[in-house]
Amino acid sequence: MATWKLPLDVIIDILIRLPGKSLLRFRCISKSFRSLIDSKDFTNLHLSRSIKTSSNRSLVICSELDYNLKTRFHSLSLDSLGGGDDDGSIIDLRVNEMFDIIIGSCNGLLALKNYPKGIILLNPLTKKHRVLPKFYRDLHGDKPSLHGFGYDVGSDDYKLVRIHVFKSPAYHIEATVYGLKVNLWRRIKNIKNFPYSWADHSYGGNGAFVNGALHWLANQDQDEMINDLILAFDLNIETFYSMPMPSFGNEGGGGELSGVYVLKGCLSLLCKYSEPWDLWVMKEYGVKDSWSKLFTMNENDYRVIPLAFSSRGDKVLFQKNSKDLCWYHLDMHRVESLLVKGPSDVHVCVDTLVSPFAESNRSLKKKKTRKRRKGKRN
Fold first, then answer.
1. Cα separations (Å) of 101 from 85, 110, 204, 220?
2. DSSP 8-class letter at 169
3. From CA 222, how far away is CA 282, in angstroms rounded?
4. For 74-132, how does the pLDDT look when each residue is reduced to its tens digit (9 = 90+)?
5. CA of 320: how far to CAs of 67, 202, 341, in Å?
6. The whole model's pTM is what?
7. What residues have CB less than 8 Å from 224, skipping those under 6 apart?
8. pLDDT tens for residues 167-211?
9. Do residues 157 and 165 lie in contact, with contact meaning Cβ atoms separated by under 8 Å?
10. Rg of the Cα trace of the chain?
11. Cα 179 from Cα 191, distance rounded (Å)
12. How far separated are the first and last CA of the chain, in Å rounded?
């Protein structure tokens, strides 16, 4: 290993502040840099700082297929959207299939699907991807399934979840969970006393990952056409529970729950009335009284999706009508349209070096120990 001119701790503190694209270039400096940057410990440090500081975020927009029928994506820096100077870069999945639907994003990994082709996990920064094992062929529920992608801290594993409803011979559900470490799907059967269902037309099919759990819109009536609660699934203990709802008061009459989302690590809920949209944020997870209405947006659009806060926290990025992007300014209560036009699938993704493979990496502690031993010999 090359001799460091600075203490290793200082070098690490410098590197974790850099964008992911810069780290990819620095891997070419030497074997020592590549070994350090590729280590799991360093990847986790860089990821933690990016999440804490709301930095290194990109907007991943599903684009049209090219002449080779390969899915392509545009990646735009979230902080550059205000200025409009960044046209973004093209990301090629480098697979000969059309994985064009984004299930979810977690720690820099995207879960993409295309039925009946399957599902892949992709890091859009490093362009590494992993094709998941084929799904159970006999699991086709009587309504669209719920699905979500997240990280289980307890087992240090990334998990993909699908939930299916069957109405015959008796109403029941089955959940299937994919674990990245074992690279296998497994079925959770005999889920008894499951009182929940969800509207077929719900936009909440993709689970919002917050506090170690996935969240969807649901209801407690098998034939209900409107969702009125938030269903959660804990990735660690793999159990279902419902979340406390906001106290809408009289203003809640006539409103419809539109979707659950994640804003700056907090669970958020969008409620649509005849014309305005209310955005609620749960500031303390699981605490009913922590629900707070962030703002009311008077936009006559059939669908609105909140994507992210700006780095300063003074505005919220939205997608309107499955195509147009805009900022909502919290202080001035106005909408600023952006020139970026996007198709239906748009997700915020952190630029990290997290691998879609579960291979073990050497820890930084072992690197430091070897460096100290080498120093003593010299």
1. 27, 10, 14, 28
2. S
3. 27
4. 788 887 775 444 445 556 555 555 677 888 999 999 998 876 668 889 998 898 889 89
5. 29, 17, 10
6. 0.85
7. 197, 199
8. 666 667 788 899 999 999 998 866 777 788 787 655 556 899 999
9. no
10. 22
11. 19
12. 13
